[in-house]
Amino acid sequence: MSLTSDVRAVLFDLDGTLADTALDLIAAVNRVLVEEGRRPLPASDLRPLVSKGGRALLARAFPDDTDNVCEALLPRFLAAYAEGLAVHTRPFEGVERLLADIESRGWPWGIVTNKPEGLAVGVVAGLGWSARAGALVGGDTLPVRKPSPEPLWLAASQLGVDPVHCLYVGDDARDIEAAKAAGMPSVAALWGYREAHEDPRAWGATVDCMDADALCAWLGGRGA
Prior knowledge:
The chain is of the alpha/beta class. It has two domains: 9-20 and 89-219, 3-Layer(aba) Sandwich (Rossmann fold); 22-82. It is 40% helix and 12% strand. It has nine helices and eight strands. The longest helix has 16 residues, at 67-82.
C-alpha cells in the first residue's frame, strides 16, 4: 500500500521517532536522583519510557514516592535537561535519508511533540533542523497536547496543508490516537521507545515500519 498520491506533507513526533534523545533525558533524571541522595539508574531501566515524558521517567526513578513528589521534581528535571540538550542526541539511523527524500518530493515536514516547545526548539537547533522543519508544535504550545488532535491540526496549518494530506509518524500509542482523531494517516515507528508489554501493531496505524528506511521505501510505493 502507498499513499504517495495523497500525502503532501509529513509530521513527526520528536523523541523516539526522529531523534534518539534517551541519553540526554536519562542524564537529567540521574542528576535529580543524585541530588536527592539516591543512586543513578542504568539507561536500560529508563530508555523504554522516554516517549512517555518526564513524569513517567520520574515515576520510574522514584517509584516509592507520590505523584505530588514527582510533580514537584519535574521543574528540576526540566532544568537539568535544558542544560544538556542535544549533547548525545542524534537522529535515528536512516532519518536524515528520509528527510532528504521527503524534501526531494517537494513536501514540507514538521514536528509535533509533547516535549515543552522551548526544549524542542533547542533539540531541533542542535540537530541542525531549524531551517528545515516547517512546523514545530510543543506540548505547551496549546492548552492541550497529544493525544488531542489539535496540535496536529495546528502543525498542518503551519505547513499550509489540509490534515487529510498530512502523514503523522510516531512511536507511541498517543501518536497514533492523535493522528486518527485528526483525520490523518499514520505510521507506527517501530524503531522508537516502548516497554516490553506494548504491542505497537495493535495501535491500528495505517502502516507499521521497522525503520526509517522502510518508511522511505513505503512512501516511494515499493512496500515496507
